[in-house]
């Protein structure tokens, strides 16, 4: 019997053709609607490999019924949707898709920063809605980006790529990270800063840290209160690094000037969510890495990792590296 694979979202045929030659492949047939957890629970019982997306919770409960499962290939660099510890305990490889999405996600982060600062979405809607009556001095006037201070919280590869873009805009670059990045300091001129000083000095506070127990709600009411009243908060990492209730209050009370959000605590965010009612919030549907080329590259890495593991080779991009030591 051929090893079997379950893919939790419809992917282009060309991407799965190679897998179909060697393995039994079953795929959830919708591109937009997530596979229900009960369907996933039943499918996972039989398969050797799972190809998942960020919205699939790969829980201990799910893994505990997956008696043949050898690999979960997650189409994302982040893997907070997966209980990695439970997978490792069961000898299941967890793979992600780093590197290929770095520049694309940095592009979107900077696009969101510019759009929020210069009110681009609001201005485009205003024009299309026929509200434009005449040129006026402060019509949709926003905040400058050039030569302002950006504070990047979480200086991984994407953080560094954002910093390179900020350098091109003549910005002063502060960063906060668990470890210092001497190369980024030398090459980009980024300055290491404590979290406290970064949040109080930055005009743009950019959340780039992965979601972990330590980073959950790291942007809370107290933190927003310490930001400049002209500060703009940008989040393209995970919604839960910010306390959305506190963010709403900070925006509503004008403790900060705006927010550009690509990610939310609950996704998809409901259209009647309080944050979406605010004019100074620019909201996107988690599209950080969504260029066609990058999404194809991410699928390709997942496919390659699955093929390698099911044919006895080591994976290309492994999250639970301790798996290699125990083999
Ligand atoms: C997307 O959010 C990712 O982690 O790649």
Automatic annotation (TrEMBL):
Keyword Nuclease set for record: no
Family to which the UniProt record says this protein belongs: Belongs to the D-isomer specific 2-hydroxyacid dehydrogenase family.
Keyword Oxidoreductase: yes
Location of the D-isomer specific 2-hydroxyacid dehydrogenase catalytic domain: 5-320
D-isomer specific 2-hydroxyacid dehydrogenase NAD-binding domain segment(s): 110-288
Keywords from the named record: Oxidoreductase
InterPro entries: D-isomer_2-hydroxyacid_DH, D-isomer_2_OHA_DH_cat_dom, D-isomer_DH_NAD-bd, NAD(P)-bd_dom_sf
Protein name, entry field: D-glycerate dehydrogenase
